[in-house]
Amino acid sequence: xxxxxxxxxxxxxxxxxxxxxxxxxxxxxxxxxxxxxxxxxxxxxxxxxxxxxxxxxxxxxxxxxxxxxxxxxxxxxxxxxxxxxxxxxxxxxxxxxxxx
Length: 100
Hints:
alpha+beta, Alpha-Beta Plaits, 4-stranded antiparallel beta sheet, 4 strands, 38% helix, globular
């Protein structure tokens, strides 16, 4: 199994209301991917509840049976569309892929 974890941190400036809107939008964009691609074993998204400078704001936690399936996900039209839809939200991204 391959775990694929992505963490987004919103880039200021933004108000508390804007942050809430941006995080809700990221969830709306990425959450459905787990149901759209049948080769994904597990796919969860979440909004961070910890208010700390070192914490990310939004996470995608997914599991694939192989590196090939992870590559299929990254190259899929559904993923590319999600990335494009989220491109207007200012954020940084960190990712980790590991064998589980």
